């Protein structure tokens, strides 16, 4: 505020004297990261949990260094290429666990942070570890956003025996619609958002999400920006092995890699399919592509740059389940910030089903 008052005074004096001073544009961007949590507890699965103490440390750091915005505000800004504060981010949870209310909600309320919980309506009020509908309604009145995580947290890519692609898509989409209807019976005008359980989706499902007016969210990492796929937006997992604040700080400051095209047409792979080489077209002069690096399983992989094309090569086979390649490159204008892009891959078991 003192700096702002000082600059206003200087500008006023210069105007009175007939002089002008160039206005320095504030750093603006139309992308922001979204954090993903599940459990905030000490007695839940370590892979998807963060302790209340660690969560409190995350939120205290965010309160000092970032602007937390509603998820909808970040999505709409990215979709319409509108500017956001350069320190903006959003906070989300998957699954409506009771420990969110017990351990996370008081911390978030203390800081005045908006947040979104993607829930499975069929499990609400039906399991002891889940929220009740009364709690969901009360939290909603306190400003918490609730959205669709399917009716019962199914593996959306699982196929039934002899099920055609058409029948599969019809079945899983009925699940989404039923979840949305049940959510709407408890919450006024819920957003048409869908978080894919386990982050699993394919080209057909993403197309259905977009055609039906939904915005989809995955569990691969990266910031959201104008070039993002709004049927499968990335979020940064922030619990379990990803809860370390030192590495999370870099992710909180990340920018959305402006990828205008990719040679990957479908993240779901056939059992014998291996995407050895993937090329991404990068649309943006601020990305320092000469310093781009791609990673798989935490290890740097062969990465090449040819003008605006970033190519990575996978030497090891994609295993059953969920995998992803992350690519980063530093920003030229935004000191200390990195552009981030994540390409997920999904491969079923021989049965056609996916492991938890």
Automatic annotation (TrEMBL):
Listed GO MF terms: hydrolase activity, acting on carbon-nitrogen (but not peptide) bonds
Protein name, per record: Polysaccharide deacetylase
GO cellular component: extracellular region
All copies of domain NodB homology, residue ranges: 87-290
UniProt-listed Pfam families: Polysacc_deac_1
A single BP term in Gene Ontology: carbohydrate metabolic process
Residue ranges that the Swiss-Prot or TrEMBL entry lists as coiled coil: none
Signal peptide range: 1-27
Entry keyword set: Signal
Subcellular location: Secreted
Record's keyword annotation contains Signal: yes
Classification via CDD domains: CE4_DAC_u4_5s
């Amino acid at each position: 505020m003192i700096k702002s008052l000082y600059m206003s005074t200087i500008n006023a004096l210069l105007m009175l004297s007939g002089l002008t001073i160039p206005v320095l544009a504030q750093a603006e961007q139309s992308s922001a990261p979204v954090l993903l949590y599940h459990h905030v507890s000490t007695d839940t699965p370590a892979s998807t949990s963060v302790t209340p103490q660690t969560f409190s440390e995350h939120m205290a750091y965010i309160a000092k260094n970032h602007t937390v915005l509603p998820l909808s505000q970040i999505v709409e800004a990215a979709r319409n290429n509108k500017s956001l504060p350069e320190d903006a981010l959003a906070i989300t949870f998957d699954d409506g666990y009771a420990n969110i209310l017990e351990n996370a909600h008081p911390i978030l309320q203390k800081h005045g942070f908006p947040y979104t919980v993607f829930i499975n309506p069929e499990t609400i009020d039906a399991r002891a570890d889940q929220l009740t509908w009364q709690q969901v309604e009360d939290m909603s009145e306190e400003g918490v956003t609730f959205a669709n995580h399917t009716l019962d947290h199914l593996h959306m890519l699982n196929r039934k025996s002899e099920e055609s692609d058409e029948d599969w898509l019809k079945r899983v989409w009925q699940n989404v619609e039923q979840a949305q209807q049940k959510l709407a019976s408890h919450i006024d005008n819920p957003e048409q958002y869908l978080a894919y359980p386990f982050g699993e989706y394919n080209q057909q499902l993403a197309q259905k999400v977009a055609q039906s007016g939904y915005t989809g969210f995955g569990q691969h990492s990266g910031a959201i920006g104008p070039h993002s796929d709004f049927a499968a937006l990335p979020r940064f997992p922030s619990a379990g092995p990803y809860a370390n604040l030192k590495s999370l700080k870099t992710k909180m400051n990340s920018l959305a890699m402006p990828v205008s095209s990719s040679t990957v047409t479908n993240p779901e792979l056939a059992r014998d399919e291996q995407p050895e080489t993937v090329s991404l077209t990068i649309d943006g002069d601020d990305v320092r592509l000469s310093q781009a690096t791609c990673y798989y399983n935490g290890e740097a992989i062969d990465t090449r740059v040819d003008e605006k094309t970033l190519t990575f090569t996978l030497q090891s086979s994609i295993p059953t389940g969920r995998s992803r390649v992350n690519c980063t490159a530093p920003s030229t204008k935004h000191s200390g910030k990195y552009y981030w892009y994540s390409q997920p891959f999904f491969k079923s078991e021989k049965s056609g089903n996916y492991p938890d």
